Amino acid sequence: NRRFLLVRRPEGAPVPEDFALVAEQIPSPPPSGIVVRNRYASLDPAQRGWMDDAPSYMPPIPLGDPVRATTVGVVHASDSPDFAPGQWVMGLNALEDYSVSIPGGFTMPIDIGLVASPSNYLSALGAVGLTAYFGLLETARPQPGETILISGAAGAVGSAVGQIGKIAGCRVVGIAGGEEKCRRLIEDYGFDAAIDYKGKDIEVLAAEIGEAAPGGANVVFENVGGTVMEAELFNLALHARVVLCGLISEYNSAEKVGIRNLWKVLTQRATIHGFLIADFADRFAEGGQKMAQWLAEGKLRMDEDVQDGLENAYDAFMRLFSGANTGKLVLKIA
Ligand code: NDP
Fold it and tell me: Could you tell me which residue ranges the Enoyl reductase (ER) domain spans (predicted)?
């Protein structure tokens, strides 16, 4: 059982020495529990936060434990009446070949007959797809004709938010890093406008957003934070709703930058909503059905960036922070 352990808390950007790949015995199921053979693991920006020893919505990953991750896999051995060997499941496990799941842990059966690849349960039908769905439709509640401004727009969450925004009848403007990603926003995901943030200061970025969203943004879907968010706040429409979904530009910096133009929220009487997908856990089935329907109808496209091998976990994970990932980043374990 190869396991990708967190052995040191990263300071700033993680380095390879913060982790260790070890091999251990394949575990046996605990009383009423199961052992899952992981096939795919989700690599998420949130994992960077779980590596810090800081209070958050989840406890930090203990040093010496494998890096916590949502996985999909097959039940390898079971002492549970609810799970049979061979059954496909998804759950909150770790970057390792085999994970132990105890009763009451988050493990649920999945129907891989409904999807092109089991990894789809980590993308369109997983937390990122549902984050886009509930974060936009339930939290921001966009109205037809409104303008939605999305940062991290070419990523897994952002690209889905933009497409759902179009389904909701909105004008959709995306901010992403580089010409190629901006091309994909328009051509692959149907955004109305795309802005490359790389190498631009706040004034230039704010002006470009203003051109793409002349009346201002009614909804801001924030994945990035920092200067990108400051440029967005200069372009709030009156009574705008800002969904604070992620602040990836700050995850690797010890010093948090903060937002220096919060007064814009005041003058525009805007609302900032902190969003956490876990709050919608009891509605995952409903959101998943809708996402699956849109996928089947060809209204939604979710790209996956599948990297191969537990031994490449570090390099794969760092793609999120260099912007190398194209679509939902997934690690194929077996
Ligand atoms: P993505 O697929 O969007 O990958 C991350 C992207 O972030 C990169 O490709 C890169 O795109 C961009 N990025 C990385 N570093 C920076 C930086 N310093 N400045 C600007 N952009 C940067 O990941 P996800 O879709 O999985 O996650 C997107 C966001 O959603 C994250 O902030 C994540 O924490 C959040 N999230 C929140 C959830 C919640 O419940 N609140 C649930 C799931 C995700 P580019 O090339 O454009 O720079």
Answer: 14-331
